[in-house]
Amino acid sequence: MNRRLIVCLLAFGACGLLEAQEVAWPEITVEAKPGARWWWMGSAVDKANLTRNLEEYASAGMGTMEITPIYGVKGNEARDISFLSPKWMEMLRHTESEAVRLGMQVDMNTGTGWPFGGPEVAIEDAACRLLIEEYHLKKGERLQRKVETTDVKQQPYAVLERLMAFSDTGECLDLTNKVRNGVLDWKAPKGNWRLIAAFCGKTFQKVKRAAPGGEGYVMNHFSRGAVERYLMRFEKAFGGNTEGITGTTPYPHTFFNDSYEVYEADWTQGLFDEFLARCGYKLEEHLLEFLSEGDRTDMARRIISDYRETLGEMLQENFTSQWTEWAHRHGAKTRNQAHGSPGNLIDLYATVDIPECEGFGLSDFGIKGLRKDSLTRPNDSDLSMLKYASSAAHIAGKLYTSSETFTWLTEHFRTSLSQCKPDIDLMFVSGVNHAYFHGTTYSPADAAWPGWKFYATVDMSPTNSIWRDAPAFFQYITRCQSFLQMGKPDNDFLVYLPVYDMWQEQNGRLLMFDIHKMSERAPRFIEAVHRINDAGYDMDYISDAFVRSLCFRDGKLETSGGGRYKALVVPGVRLMPADVLEKLCKLAGEGATIVFLDQYPEDVPGFGNLEKRREIFKDVWSRMKLMQQSGNARILFGTDYAQTLAQTSAIPEEMKTRYGLSCIRRNHADGYHYFIAALTERDTEAWIPLAVKARSAVFYNPMDGTSGKARLRQKDGKTEVFMQMRSGESLILKTFTEEDVQMQAWAYTTPMQDVVRLDGKWKFRFVQSEPAVTDVPDSVALGSWTNCDFEGARTTMGTACYTVSFRLDEPEKAVDWVLSLGDVRESARVRINGVDVSTLWAVPYHCKVGKYLRAGENVLEVEVTNLPANRIADMDKRGVEWRIFKDINIAALGYKKGNYAGWTPMPSGLLGPVELIPVKILDK
Fold first, then answer.
1. Average pLDDT of the residues of the chain
2. 662: Cβ contacts below 8 Å, ≥ 6 apart
């Protein structure tokens, strides 16, 4: 063969291979698979059941199991294993070994239950709170008494930090050194005096939901020494050669910390000195303002803001950073839920390797056909809340944003896979790319149904009936995350987090940013985030610390973690440190776009050195105004968000503004890729302009793994893609800026006439049922099997097979056929003519089936699996004792004791209508 021809053929083959790789689905990694919090009840685990559990998780498609030991099972104490004991470490080693064999990863809580604490935490290292005692004297009166807290429980532990005296004329005296052996002997000089004794006391909080060997005080997260001593227990346990156990246990892939729930911990010993070092003035000299309540003065608010900032910095430095550095020394990573913390969430999240957000409740987007259930609670984590974790990950250059997923989506035993999809899609468009279910419980083979259960939902366990079809759901998540972990984030704006406004405006002293109260903590900021999103843009939040390290390079703002943005937006911010404003001024002078929305910053936060800082602020602001007026800098202002942001170089995504779709965009080497979700009641069929240029693009359907080249056109200087999406659906779009990729076309179709309605009787049988049903009719009309007249119809949990034969004379008249199952309760496996077609688990319940049909007689089988709700309700009616767990046992929504005997049977089975819809190619 001609040598030149060979070279050309080789080159052509290489190009073809390269192009195939470009349009293929990303390679699946263990991180792309969903993970789960894996509760070990009482740590009563054994090797055989650990292997059995792990094999079930792995075969279903899970990738990472995070071990969190909790309280045990009543009457099972003999099988409990003490946390970090040699026996416990042996079980961990077995788990890690089996995970390696199965291609999984193991994470581990750095404790049991939550928060961190346990038997190794001495009272001296336990969480602290501020205690106050007051004494009042007039001129000449003598106070000769023991200075101690009146709280008898606190007396053995409370340490006097300061004793301050304040006169009605404004004089302040530090009497701390006058306390001898706990007794003060002091005569009041001229004036009326208010003496304030500040003690460092204890919260006495114990670890919640602790496992055996994990019971004890919650540690002091603000004390470096307390944290260091806490971690020493893990050093010893993983070190091996303990009590006859030879060899070390490998450290887990990642150490986990749950949401910050250290209640009333507003102090630590030595905080007065820390405050002075950080803020430049003595907090003890301003206790009158610090302790004031109600309508506080501006001075008091500033002092409390400084206190809140100090507390947050100490948490970050003494706990979060130290914990992460410790994990790194042992080759492990850290995954942290910073929400709930009394600090700047962005900085706390960014300190760890994997920031983790949390969903709590069910979102309602009005998706067509998605069933509703009265036993749910609204999701407290909207897009604005979820973006704290992903923002920190993006600006700090972290690869993953994880999520605690589906917490309290519904009441127990009532969560369907279809209800899960909108909330996982919400997390994806918010920046999550590494979902962990909350959760699944280790359960031994000999445990009677429903097995061992955690007190809160969701239950993503093999004993749940939804497990039968869960692998299809897990595969959906894996496909989505394979794209969402690829490339880099491509959000438009950095949005300044007005934490000083929050610190200075909120009442009280200890300010915790938990998800349930964010609407109170930051209402204006939440509104601004949604207005920016509604204007078609995406954003990441940025803290003052990250603003200070920003640079302007090649026309974009660049964070220290490598994130690149078109502008920095300051939304309705009143308070800003002078050096941060100076940084914005410098960036604007270099060419960066700075956008002020609703108002300009007007003052500095805090109290220390206030007037000097105000002078600097005013000077910087004067220079910025001159720059703005001269037109020599891109400093924008407006109250109309859409109009103002349109003046930046960012282009809004019209799929959001005009069509109500939700999306997130990332970039890759050859272009961009979008995750798009129809979290709306609307269907979409339109040419949609993109915010990026593209020569070609490919659609990927994460539900079924299909892909195809999208239709593009160039119009009015924009790239438009033709998109068809039904309410509730999701797609991935990958664009190529320069290359015209070659592959099969994406199938755009439109319905034809002659829809085949599969009415009448269907053959009916149960594939599996618990309890087993008898006297099942041979055929039924479509509808809930709970309405049928056979024993167990209203109580069984299981899978029923519906079979119907139908005739198609000319199936080839359509380019394809779509099977629509209508209303399914709750998931379905479809088989046509003996061939498995698809597993349908979310609305709309439809799939393309043309290639499975033949001329003449066809047989359709649909295996439908219901929820376990009817079975558990029957058990409660019969008084079966299945709530056998210690501590909180099983909680109902709202953390109340519940009984399900009063539940009406939940619809189960194939409700229909079932239709075969012929489709043709849509020519648009």
1. 96
2. 425, 426, 429, 656, 676, 677, 678, 679, 680
CA dihedral sign of residues 782, 787, 792, 798: positive
**CB 813, CB 862: distance < 8 Å:** no
Q: What whole-number distance in Å separates Cα of residue 358 and Cα of residue 380? A: 9
Whether residues 555 and 595 fall in one domain: yes
Evaluate whether residue 880 is within a structural domain: no
pLDDT tens, residue by residue, 364-398 = 999 999 999 999 999 999 999 999 999 999 999 99
Q: 894-903: buried (b, 16+ CB within 10 Å) or exposed (e) per residue?
A: eeeebebeeb
- HSE value, Cβ hemisphere, 13 Å, CA-based, for 560: 13
Which residue do the tokens 């009442």 mark? 507
Residue 632 pLDDT: 85
Mean pLDDT of 495-502: 99
Task: Classify residue 218: in a domain, yes or no.
Answer: yes
pLDDT confidence bin for 22, thresholds 50/70/90: confident
**CB of 71 closer than 8 Å to CB of 210:** yes
- 634 contacts 606 by C-beta, under 8 angstroms: no
The CATH number of whichever domain residue 767 belongs to comes to 2.60.120.260
Of the three residues 202, 227, 247, the one that is the final residue of a domain is 202
Instruction: Give the CA-trace dihedral at 221, 224, 228, 230, to 10 degrees.
Output: -30
**Secondary structure E strands in 809-921:** 816-820, 823-825, 827-832, 835-840, 846-848, 856-865, 891-892, 896-897, 909-912, 915-921
Domain limits at 183? 128-202
Residue 388 lies in a domain: yes
Residues 780 and 910 in one domain: yes
Percent helix, strand, coil in the chain (nearest 5)? 30, 30, 40
The per-residue DSSP string of 673-696 comes to EEEEE--SS--EEEEEE-SS--SE
Give the rounded distance of the alpha carbon of 397 from its chain centre.
18
Chain-centroid distance of CA 235 in Å reads: 29
pLDDT tens sequence across 216-248: 999 999 999 999 999 999 999 998 544 434 468
Considering the domain architecture, whether residues 761 and 742 belong to the same structural domain is answered as: no
Residue 730: CATH number of its domain? 2.60.40
Q: What is the DSSP annotation of 474-485?
A: HHHHHHHHHHHT
Given a contact cutoff of 8 angstroms between Cβ atoms, the answer to whether 467 and 542 are in contact is no
Give pLDDT tens digits for 766-788: 999 999 998 999 999 999 999 99
Where do the H-state alpha helices sit in 776-898? Answer: 869-877
Tokens coding 191: 């004036």
SS (H, E, C) 247-275: CCCCCCCEEEECCCCCCCCCECCCHHHHH
Write out the two tokens for 429. Answer: 């468009």
Task: Kindly report the CATH number assigned to the domain that includes residue 472.
Answer: 3.20.20.80
